[in-house]
Amino acid sequence: MSSQPAETGLRVKEVGGSEYSRYSRRVNRDRTRKEIFEGDETWDIAIIGGGATGVGVAVDAASRGYRVCLVEQADFGKGTSSRSTKLVHGGVRYLRQGNVSLVMEALKERGRLRRNAPHLVHDLAFVVPNYDWWETPFYGIGMKVYDKLAGKYGFGRSRVLTKEETLERIPTLATEGLRGGVLYYDGQFDDARLLVSLARTAADHGAALLNYARCTGLLKDEDGFVCGLKVEDVETETETTVRARCVVNATGAFSDAVRRLDDPEAAAMIAPSQGVHVVLDGRFLGGESAIMVPRTSDGRVLFAIPWHGMTVVGTTDTPIEEVSLEPKALEEEIHFILETAETYLAEPPTRDDVRSVFVGIRPLVKAPGASSTAALSRDHTIHISHSGLLTIAGGKWTTYRNMAEDCVDHAATLGRLDEKPCVTKNLPIHGAIEEEREGPLAVYGSDAEAIEARGSELVHPDLPIVWAQLDWAIEHEMARTVDDLLARRTRALLLDARASMEAAPAVAHRLAQKLGHDSMWAERQILAFNRIAEHYRLDLEDRSERPVSSGA
Questions:
Q1: What does the alpha-carbon distance between residue 478 and residue 29 come to, in Å, rounded to a whole number?
Q2: Residue 526: exposed, middle, or buried by beta-carbon count in 10 A (0-12, 13-18, 19+)?
Q3: Could you tell me whether strands 356-365 and 318-319 are parallel, antiparallel, or unpaired per DSSP bridges?
Q4: What does residue 108 show for φ and ψ, rounded to 5 degrees?
Q5: What CATH class has 27-80+192-269+377-426?
Q6: Rounded distance between C-alpha atoms, residue 339 and residue 500, angstroms
Q7: DSSP assignments along 135-162, one per residue
């Protein structure tokens, strides 16, 4: 491995304790494009979609030894996978719905993820504030069941808190009528950073992952079975064909669009729903614990969690008819979140306090008789068409690894591949090290030292990111746009939309220089980023109003 020119050797301590020399494969777009566009091999598995599901499948398949390629129409994690509630959790509300099997699966996967990616996943204490007499025994018992289901994968034991203990953990809670609370533990992570680390892991095992590469059609053999796909390089507007023994559709909310490339008459299987989050200053929590509101008017729970020094509050569950890469928050959704938060916080947050708004689309699988999208199962579904296109949809971030294992098992059978066992239950994710790090670079794990060596100059005084992170993302993580850099390789846009827009011109010119583009290209990048960032700012966005429906 050390003979490869794009490798960097670092001696690190792997999860598990042994020291070894890791040669980290740089994710390079030009090299990967050449491998996919100019190669003439037949891949074992070709994956469409670069979100949590698709990249998870790539990690699983590549680590088994299969030849894997993946294409993504935009950037890795551009959609839902970078816009979650930032929690690795079993799902307390699914327990209330009676979906014990999903909760047990998620709790087990939560424990595995913390073990395999300790630089990205950590414990987080949650407080359920109690204002009615029945809440303490009701939620206290429920959390004990949650603990029991977690078993050896537990993150900490729940317990009942007095009023004083509750305020000690959440000093900003409204005190009128407060009786106490229930404490329990779940996991927190940075979703986009985990996705980038998974992409690096897949590449380390030989997978070829290409962003800004759109699937425009499917190839079929003389018997009508899918045997590959047509791919357009968005950057160069060139096309190629990719042959594969099995094609996996892992495009989330866009799954039906890909299925109709196979069969124009395919019935819709996705019932999309959007979830909105607002980002407030850290003072609205005033500590390191999170709030979980167990019941809201739309049938969901609401979280207020500390994240990168800010407070993230969400989410909603609003059925939508059309999906896009840049969904917009509705005025009613923002009002719902702020109004619910006002009930529980001593200082009611207002629109002026909102630093950013971000929206994700859930690719829920339709179910007959469901009364609302909130009632739809978060279990994943695998669908194989008559022509052999394998679609995996549904699920949740926490269970991505289990979903990928199930998908690759099916893909291997469908593609008549040699049977190879899954190894991801104990597979360290790129960057995983035992030593705990502090500060904003902790999410890079074993790569943090190399980034620190590049300097500590801030990109913007109100953003916790440095130029070294952006340079690293361009050189090692296939970042191609200002949006890639400020929304996903770093989380600037989600933390402070205004500051991100102010930083965009300097970032665009730095990116242009690194990629060999001219100043006109940089100016187009600034305009494109500002159009995206406008959706994240309340003071710039003129939002249409319609009720937040709980209907399907």
A1: 6
A2: middle
A3: unpaired
A4: -65, -45
A5: alpha beta
A6: 27
A7: HHHHHHHHHHHHHHHHGGG-S---EEE-
Tell me the residue ranges of DSSP E strands in 74-119.
Answer: 87-88
- Binned at pLDDT 50, 70 and 90, residue 12 comes out as very low
What's the pLDDT tens digit per position in 19-57? 333 334 557 899 999 999 998 889 999 999 999 999 999
> Which phi and psi angles does 266 have, rounded to 5°?
-60, 130
The per-residue DSSP string of 387-405 comes to: T--EEEEE--GGGHHHHHH
Cα–Cα–Cα angle for 552, 50, 46, nearest 5°?
A: 110
Distance CA 55, CA 192 (A): 12
In this prediction, residue 154 has a pLDDT band, given cuts at 50, 70 and 90, of: confident
Q: Name the pTM for this structure.
A: 0.91
Q: 10 Å Cβ neighbour count for 352?
A: 7
Burial string for 395-427 (b: 16+ CB within 10 Å, else e) reads: bbbbbbbbbbbbbbbbbbebbebeeeebebeeb
Q: Which residues pair with 11 in a beta bridge?
A: 21
Helix (H) or strand (E) segment spanning residue 11: strand 7-13
CATH topology of domain 454-536: Helicase, Ruva Protein; domain 3 (1.10.8)
CA–CA dist 110, 129 (Å, integer): 24
CATH architecture of 86-188+272-361: 2-Layer Sandwich (3.30)
Q: Cβ neighbours of residue 530 under 8 Å, at least 6 residues apart?
A: 501, 504
> Model confidence over 91-124: pLDDT tens digits?
776 666 666 777 888 889 999 999 999 999 999 9
Structural tokens at position 524: 């187009």
Tokens representing 51 are: 């979100």
Any residues with CB less than 8 A from the CB of 335 and at least 6 apart, and which? none
3-class DSSP state for residue 322? coil
Ordered by start, the domain boundaries in the chain are: 27-80+192-269+377-426, 86-188+272-361, 454-536
Residue 29 CA to residue 40 CA, distance in Å, equals 18
Cα(7)–Cα(12) distance, rounded to whole angstroms?
Answer: 15
Can you tell me whether residue 523 is helix, strand or coil?
helix
Q: Which residues of 527-548 are buried (b: 16+ CB within 10 A; e: fewer)?
A: eebeebbbbbbbeeeeeeeeeb
* Three-state DSSP class for residue 164: helix
